[in-house]
Amino acid sequence: MNSIDLVVLLIQKGCWAAIAAVGFAVLFNVPKYVLPHCALIGALGYALRVALMSNGMGIVLATLCAALLIGVLATILAQNYGVSETLFSVGPAIPMIPGSYAYKAVIGLVTVANSPDLEHDSTLLLAAFENGIKAMLTVLFLSFGIALPSLIWSTFRRRNK
């Protein structure tokens, strides 16, 4: 993939992620002044994840890096507005939940459970297990990445008082 194709892909994915982030932010009743920030944070976070994955990084680590970006930006904006980081981070984080991996894991397990011959379904069971692990680790690292900047900031503030 050349650089122009990558830039076009990042813009496309970022725009769709911005729309999704604003949609989830509205769903969670965030104030109107937060919506443009959620759109920007969602677009930047998702574009970073896509960029890292297109350069060979796995979805779990790419999501951790994107979540750290979301967490840092949410912490900075929350300090500027004097509100909780949650307002700026939840909407942009939800589009990064790996629904396709969780779906494939559940469908694989259901297929294996309904199969009379387990020996022929061992590869399907392993694929389901792999997809489930990826989904769980991605959600875990997403939460960790969003929470870490806020925890570091609050520890830093307490030490300097």
Outline the structure in words.
With 161 residues, this protein is an all-alpha fold. The chain has one domain (3-159). 80% of the residues lie in helices and 0% in strands. It has helices at 3-27, 35-54, 59-81, 86-93, 99-113, 122-159. It is globular, with a radius of gyration of 18 Å.
Layout: helices, strands, pairs:
Layout: H1 3-27, H2 35-54, H3 59-81, H4 86-93, H5 99-113, H6 122-159
Helix pairs in contact: 1-2, 1-4, 2-3, 2-4, 3-4, 3-6, 5-6
Brief digest:
The protein has 161 residues and is mainly α.
Question: What key phrases describe this protein's structure?
Answer:
0% strand; 6 helices; mainly alpha
Element-level helix/strand string: HHHHHH
Chain-averaged pLDDT: 92
Query: Biggest β-sheet, characterized?
Result: none
Proportion of strand residues: under 5%
Envelope shape = globular
Q: Which value, in Å, is the CA radius of gyration?
A: 18 Å
Terminal Cα span: 50 Å
Number of strands: 0
**Quaternary:** single chain
Q: Classify the helix fraction into a percent range.
A: over 70%
Tell me the number of structural domains: 1
